[in-house]
């Protein structure tokens, strides 16, 4: 089919665009983990209540679905977060955004403090000194998987409160410790216990804003996971040099998070399920309750599901590696920037931190690129077809991004030289981060459109596992690569790897339906049809599985739209 062909799909319940389901492109509610998913004879979760669920009506937790008998008291129900005052909605939007920014900034604020850590604890190995950063990053692999199902039972606010307490206390213990092992251990527990916001923040956005506004408001939350690690070296280097102590690489994070913690304890619950459950209690109703054992089983299955998808789900595996590589390259710059700019240009820590400005500019451009493609192509097709557009139409920004990433990496590999101005390698970060951000948002939006609600949160969580696992690994060998191979060829290795990833979004764009058919999970299975704008042709366009007349071998089918209908012609070949 030609490029003018439109890919159509039926919207699924729970996905953006389906009536009554809020959500913004690319960021589903991680806490929607319920639903049945069968594979190899095993069910991660059953929609049918077990006998234990039926029998356990006491000493349990109120089941989120038990509030279905209650709903908002009309469109203007004051308890509905969408009806809160603008000021209250803005505050509750800023909380997860600033929280996520401070949380992810903590990954890289210690980069400038590595020499001080090595000196204080007598560590001669750079990799050992990196452990407070490495283990902090690994915490992001597990934390969201734990928090997501728990928030579905106890609400988003409970996750925020518990997470911020763990994050602040563990970071405070780590920075006050004079023992290197304690520093490493408590940094790990800080991110493990504090990264639940990565799982529930998007859901908060969807709770507060209607579908027509949530995609624009969600920009702050979209930027945080990328701006945090990119701005961390800049913020950390200035704080550490100002006060002359590597511990300010952690103190500065606590300074960001403390006001957030205060705001959280004065904030309100936004989850509809939990608000209605509280209303049911006030009204003296006794919703169905589920046993503690049953709930623990559900939580355990929900935690394992993303890991299964990392291994056995082709779509999650390929897109996870694709986005994970580019995301990990940002982390690799923690080592390569230090080596390149200190060796070639004799920069100090503060000057090296300023070099990350190129990445920040690229991230902002990537966000704009995704928004432009979404507004000019995807949303127009949604309006024309009644929101029946195939997931592959989410990938336009990724097609551009796949080209920009290797351009930026080759530029960065060969630009550094004493005879070349330092701005040249700094600006190489612009196309790289531009392509990385555009690709990430496109791929996340693709997952949101391709997977059905029962598996969507796990698919996105699986993508996060790849990103942070690779991000934790890369800084541990990059510095040594640049020392052994030299700046040009060490950088070129990563650039050549990025060339191998160029076909990934193009493959999904052209063969997406075939790849989705191979999935073990619930995915949309819509077909490609020829364009047809006549109103009386909508029955053809909206068909999930079009049934066209059989074509004999040796003939080419040609479909023609006219006011009398769609006609099939055959051309001998």
From TrEMBL:
It is a multi-pass membrane protein. This is Major facilitator superfamily (MFS) profile domain-containing protein. One of its GO terms (cellular component) is plasma membrane. Residues 58-67 have a biased composition (Polar residues). Pfam families: MFS_1. Residues 1-12, 42-57 have a biased composition (Basic and acidic residues). Keywords: Glycoprotein, Membrane, Transmembrane, Transmembrane helix. It comes from Fusarium venenatum. GO terms for molecular function: spermidine transmembrane transporter activity; spermine transmembrane transporter activity. It is found in: Membrane. The keyword Membrane applies. The chain crosses the membrane at residues 94-117, 129-150, 157-174, 180-205, 217-240, 246-266, 315-339, 351-373, 394-414, 420-448, 460-483, 489-510.
